[in-house]
Amino acid sequence: MNPSSCHARLFRRHLIASAAACTLLGMSAHVAAQSTDSESADADADYQLQEITISGTAEEQLKQAVGVSTITKEDIERRPPANDLSELIRTMPGVNLSGASSTGAFGNQRQIDLRGMGPENTLILIDGKPVQSRNSSMMRRSGERNTRGDSNWVPANAVERIEVLRGPAAARYGSGAAGGVINIITKRPTKKLEGEVTTYFRLPEDGDEGDTRRAGFNLSGPLSETFSFRVYGNVAKTDRDAVDINAGHGSQAAPAAGREGVRNRDINGLLRWDLTPDQVLEFEAGVSRQGNIYSGERFVQADLNPIQRQMADQGAETNRMLRRNVGITHRGRWGRWGDSRLIYQYEETDRRYVNEGAAGSVEGGFTDPITWNNSNLKNHFLNGELYMPLTTGAVGHMLTVGAEYRREQLRDPGSQNANPPAGFERSGNPEISADTWALYLEDNIALTDALVVTPGLRLDHHDKFGNNWSPSLNATYQLNEQWAINGGVARAFKAPNLYQSNPDYWYYTRGNGCPIGVDRNCYIQGNPDLDPETSINKEIGLSWTNHQGWDATVAVFDNDYKNKIVADMPFAPPPVGDGYNRYQWFNAGKAKVRGLEGSLNVPLLGEHGETLKLFNNLTVMDQNKNKDTGQPLSIIPKYTLNSTLDWRINRAWSAELSATLYGKQKPRTIGARGQELTTEGRGSYALFGLRANWQISRNLRAGFGVENLADKRLYRTANAEAAGAATYNEPGRAYYITLTGSF
Q1: Mind listing the pLDDT tens digit for each residue in 27-72?
Q2: Which is nearest to 460 in space by CA: 451, 470, 472, 449?
Q3: Greater confidence, 674 or 170?
Q4: If residue 26 lies in a helix (H) or strand (E), which one and from where to where?
Q5: For 621-639, how does the pLDDT look when each residue is reduced to its tens digit (9 = 90+)?
């Protein structure tokens, strides 16, 4: 994998492209309109079956920042994830996997965490369109959701590339991108009929760990001179761990649950219509299903109740999600007015989950007999952008003007299982919705051949939380042929989610769920008077390349984070003065996230290291805590070092040896009741992998490898509210083989 060298090459190419764009932009619109017919024909031919790429737009410029990484389809082929793309994304700088909170509940449901800002501040996109299915899962009192997140809706065999944007570069995407953005780009229609089928099998050495099997296909090509298509499908299953895999590794009598399994079914189709050489229309529709394989996970109780034990032994499904999406995209060229893109997407997620007991009937436990709840989440997304070339004197601009609308509508009767205390009423309507409108401007300005600045301003209006301004300023300066400086600052925000802001959402807890000294029932109510979470994200970086295969980057990031929305009992304001222990979600104080990212890529054999090359990236977290309480925002390693030795043996064979070193992980020290916790942290550890790929023929390739070569296993030794840093399982040695046939 070669993200950093890719950055350097793209950066250099972009500077050249920007200089060329400035020259063109300096011409009058009339001259631009008088291009020769042959030039137009060449441009039109290039446009037929590719996405529009506009050299010099603000979006493209921001993707050259040192806080941006790219995973290519070749990277995925050489290092295939077992099932979820997060397994590969976690190897990028600034990326880790963490739980939804620092309590450890649902600890094995780890999601992408960018720069320690937490999974809820990571925005997942598919082809530039937001994916929000995880929002259909109820948010519990300390921020937990029983969800795997949204990184597994596209199978690995359908991905063209993955863009990982961190820090100021992500602020342009609006609410939920304070940590960063993961943009999963799918494969596009092709000029001729092409297809491939991929199979994958992963077998762990320990029989108590779940294996993985998946098969997927891609098919694309032309239907006529103006129509083309792409369709992909996927069937996958990762089995659960044994129910008692963590036995003997915890202080409690009953062991914590191992990793849940997951069943995936995906089908997606895209139809492209080239209306004219300058106008393209795409229609897309897809259906995906994810169902868990229950392994005994529970929220707070020490042991499984009988019905949970029965369902765990059966490997039953207790949480299934069905996602349906349809979308229309138009891309156009309008001569001297510039280019445009217009996207509409409708996304609907049905989540069916086992009903869980409230306080007094084993909080979070399954009821007997089993009953089911259904939540339904509908999301509308409309986005339009116009890219206009302008000139001011001798200075060239590429102005981006954008508008966006989002509507989120949730119906979850299960969120109203807990009745409010006497004297309180609620509407009885389990539906809540939110509308957000946004306008934004970005200007990519080439002040000189060496200096490109990108100011931006975004205004979001939330129908319940008012206006949020997100200004940004990014700049790139090319010191010389080898050295460049990149920096940026931006304000980002996240609106309260539909559970946190819903006054009809009541969460009921008692005993271990209430603060110390409170010996009766406690209630947490949604709060419509919350303020959005905000952060000021700053970044400055330096990149170097000597054009002989050596390249390096270093970046310092600093985020000032405030108004984090929590319902953590010991730090909550006193109960509302109504005679009951009624708490609400509230805005906490300030927090600081600060760290360093770097990369160093070293050629060892061959020209520019084409035969043997060493790739390295490092992330160091200096601070990640709430300033008022000293508690961590998320439990992530102090440092993460990823190294890969890439050997291109010959045209048919390649191999790689990878190593990942994780630093110490420190847990929270205060429990949800305000008690001091004595649970353990997690020490540093390393994981190694060995892989080989064989291009058997033009249309057949195979891959095989060993993951966790040294068999470093980590067991989950803590559970529920007393959890420390040891809240997840790290699986042991496993072997995989994959085979792909194409035509």
Answers
A1: 223 323 333 333 333 333 333 333 333 346 778 877 777 888 999 9
A2: 470
A3: 170
A4: helix 3-26
A5: 999 988 888 888 888 999 9
CA atoms of 162 and 165, how far apart (whole Å): 10
- The answer to whether 261 touches 295, Cβ cutoff 8 Å, is yes
Query: Are 245 and 258 spatial neighbours (Cβ–Cβ below 8 Å)?
Result: yes
With contact defined as beta carbons under 8 Å apart, do 256 and 248 qualify?
Answer: no
Whether residue 490 contacts residue 403, with contact meaning beta carbons closer than 8 Å, is answered with no
The helix/strand/coil state of 493 is strand
Statement: residue 461 has pLDDT above 60: yes
pLDDT 10s digits, 372-431: 999 999 999 999 999 999 888 888 889 999 999 999 999 998 887 777 877 787 777 789
CA-CA distance, 185 to 129, in Å (whole number)? 10
pLDDT in the model for residue 53: 31
Q: What is the DSSP letter of 115?
A: T
71 and 92 Cβ atoms separated by less than 8 Å: yes
- Which residues are bridge partners to 433 per DSSP? 409
Which tokens belong to 261? 């399994």
Q: How many Cα atoms occupy the beta-carbon half-sphere of 732 within 13 Å? A: 12
For tokens 């730090």, name the residue.
Answer: 571
Report d(CA 168, CA 346) in Å as an integer: 28
With pLDDT > 70 as the criterion, what percentage of the chain qualifies?
86
Mean pLDDT in residue range 423-440: 88
SS (H, E, C) 455-495: EEEEEEEECCCEEEEEEEEEEEEECCCCEEEEEEEEEEEEC
User: Phi and psi (nearest 5°) for 62?
Assistant: -65, -25
In three-state secondary structure terms, 241 is: coil
Using only C-alpha atoms, the chain has a radius of gyration, in whole angstroms, of 26
**Residue whose entry in the numeric block shows the structure tokens 């996958």:** 236
If one counts every other C-beta atom within 10 angstroms of the C-beta of residue 224, the result is 8
Tell me how far apart the alpha carbons of residues 345 and 51 are, in angstroms, rounded to a whole number: 18
CATH code for residues 3-371+384-415+438-515+530-742: 2.40.170.20
- Sheet bearing 506-509, strands edge to edge: 506-509, 522-525, 582-584
At 267-304, the pLDDT tens digits run 999 999 999 999 999 999 999 999 999 999 887 777 78
**What's the residue count for the chain?**
743
Rounded-to-integer distance, Cα 393 and Cα 448, Å: 13
Render pLDDT for 580-614 as a digit per residue (tens, 0 to 9): 678 888 998 899 999 999 999 999 999 999 999 99
Half-sphere exposure for 239 (CA within 13 Å, toward CB): 18
Q: For residues 487 and 540, is the Cβ–Cβ distance under 8 A?
A: yes
Give 414's DSSP letter: G
Q: Distance (Å, rounded) from C-alpha 255 to C-alpha 491?
A: 43
Q: How far apart are CA 643 and CA 115, in angstroms?
A: 19
Q: What are phi and psi of 88, to 5 degrees?
A: -95, -40
pTM score, whole prediction: 0.89
Which residues, in sequence order, are bridge partners of residue 693?
Answer: 654, 703
Cα–Cα distance measured from residue 311 to residue 308, given in angstroms and rounded to the nearest whole number: 5
What's the CA gap between 683 and 520, in Å, rounded? 38
Query: pLDDT for 686-718, tens place per residue?
Result: 999 999 999 999 999 999 999 999 999 999 875
Widest pairwise Cα distance in the chain: 82
CA–CA distance, 178 with 168 (Å, rounded to integer): 8
